[in-house]
């Protein structure tokens, strides 16, 4: 198309978020899909749920046909000001102390702290039992 398209901000696009006025952002372009809601094979809920955000990933995940992509051109009303779309944040795990997999020495020490008193107690009971004088 030879004519220049209007540039919209994300907040402008997100105001068009109901069945009487529904706009989407796909691949940097703004689409008014209001008149297509009833004809959309996936139902109008899918389109309505994608308003107010960049719906490119949703659109690509479905795998639209080339004819569907061709229909989009007539629904295009402009372009999005990309600086108004928040950048995607990547997942960063929380900081945690380093896990030491080799805790063998610590385990043995704790085990000995538990077993040594039991062995001493067992020996004491055994000595007491075997050295007890039989009553006459």
Automatic annotation (TrEMBL):
The keyword S-adenosyl-L-methionine does not apply. GO terms for molecular function: heme binding; metal ion binding. Residues 5-81 form the Cytochrome b5 heme-binding domain. InterPro entries: Cyt_B5-like_heme/steroid-bd, Cyt_B5-like_heme/steroid_sf, Cyt_B5_heme-BS, Cytochrome_b5. The chain crosses the membrane at residues 107-130. Belongs to the cytochrome b5 family. This is Cytochrome b5 heme-binding domain-containing protein. One of its GO terms (cellular component) is endoplasmic reticulum membrane. The keyword Disulfide bond does not apply. It is a single-pass membrane protein. SUPFAM superfamilies: Cytochrome b5-like heme/steroid binding domain. Keywords: Electron transport, Endoplasmic reticulum, Heme, Iron, Membrane, Metal-binding, Microsome, Transmembrane, Transmembrane helix, Transport. Pfam families: Cyt-b5. Signal peptide: none annotated.
